[in-house]
Amino acid sequence: MYNKALVLKQRPDETFPQNMDFFEVREVPVPELNDGEILIRVLYIGVDPVMRVWLSGAKTYIDAVQIGQVMPAFGVGIIVETKQPKWDVGQIVFGVLECANLCKRPTKPLFKVPLFELGDPNIPLLLSIYGVTGLTALNGMKLIPQDHIPTSERQKTFCVSSAAGSTGSIALQIAKHMGFKTIGIVSGREKKDFVLSLGADECITYNDCKENDEIIVDKLTQEIKRVAPNGIDVYFDNAGEEVLDAVLPGMAKEGLILLCGATSTYNAWKNRGGLTNLASAITQQVKLEGIIFYQDQAKIYSGFSDMIELVNDGIIKHQEEIYYGVENFVQGLKRVFLGQNMGKIIIQIEQQVEHQAKL
């Protein structure tokens, strides 16, 4: 069998993301299976901001990527060989796979995908709306306490950063469905238009609060307070650093901050600026809670069913960009880190996967 893979040849340097010449495409051997492992033909992989941390050498919920290693990625594929009795050839699986035609994995960290068969046009959506990004948004929103949820008698305000991204855009739409006044924070005007098209009540562009290419935190705080004069009751943070710092003084008393991502630190994770307004969280008695759902199989499976219902009912809109072939992973990664993507970027590994995805 043919196995083409994207291999890390050196770590990114200060020229990232303009320069992405740290990968190379190689033909690598087809992995041989040990007991308990499966061989997967990779159909699609997703491009995620956290990959910058993986590439830095830092350990997260997966091991750091080593020089000479095939690039890992959340992916969906089909079992073509198995040495695990309870996992059959032809089963669609989801989890951390590789940017390659074929990869082997132990089955423990993987998910069997119900309902879909090879050729289903919804399969790539397992990396966006029905995958980690969409289900993280959904399960994060389920953490909001009842007294923070709006009713006919009380209005509540919800804010989300990276609101045009694959997680933030879903969280915003769920919040709108729950009855919140919704505010998005994005980088530029094109993304603002996209977020408003999703139904957001307000959207702030932090590029308008920059001087010498740096966000002026106080200026962004003023914009946040302008659109949320009564304070933010729930903030879904995908950005960290300056954006989180700007939101803190705008939180309502006993507000909730869900910490989902820190995209502003991913390019320079060793040189983080830190928070200057953290004292605001004390005076306002704000609760901060970190969220990761990838390893919780029960929440993933229950969220999958809930999300299908939300999409089928027309409550959630989603947007994806699909590129073809291992070679175009770098193009997708660059678009993410230059802030050019609208929704989720997905790489279809093979030019033909029974039927090409039509989204």
**Amount of beta strand:** 25-35%
Total beta strand runs: 17
Helix-strand sequence? EEEHEEEEHEHEHEEEHEHEHHEHEHE
Query: What is the percent of helical residues?
Result: 10-25%
Summarize the structure.
With 359 residues, this protein is α/β, with parallel strands linked by helices. The chain has helices at 51-56, 132-141, 168-178, 189-197, 217-227, 241-247, 263-266, 279-283, 297-312, 329-337, and strands at residues 4-8, 23-27, 37-47, 72-82, 92-98, 102-106, 111-112, 157-161, 181-186, 202-205, 210-211, 214-215, 232-237, 251-259, 287-290, 320-324, 344-348. It is globular, with a radius of gyration of 21 Å.
Which tags fit this structure?
six-stranded parallel β-sheet, alpha/beta, disordered C terminus, 10 helices, globular
Description:
GO terms for molecular function: oxidoreductase activity, acting on the CH-CH group of donors, NAD or NADP as acceptor. Residues 15-347 form the Enoyl reductase (ER) domain. InterPro entries: ADH-like_C, ADH_N_2, ER, MDR_fam. Keywords: Oxidoreductase. The chain has 359 residues and is of the alpha/beta class. Helices cover 25% and strands 26% of the residues. The protein contains ten helices and 17 strands. The protein has helices at 51-56, 132-141, 168-178, 189-197, 217-227, 241-247, 263-266, 279-283, 297-312, 329-337; strands at residues 4-8, 23-27, 37-47, 72-82, 92-98, 102-106, 111-112, 157-161, 181-186, 202-205, 210-211, 214-215, 232-237, 251-259, 287-290, 320-324, 344-348. Strands 3, 4, 5, 6, 7, 16 and 17 form a seven-stranded mixed β-sheet that branches. A six-stranded parallel β-sheet has the order 10-9-8-13-14-15, with helices on both faces. Strand 13 (232-237), helix 6 and strand 14 form a beta-alpha-beta unit. The longest helix is centred in the C-terminal third of the chain and has 16 residues, at 297-312. The chain starts with a strand and ends in an 11-residue tail after the last strand.
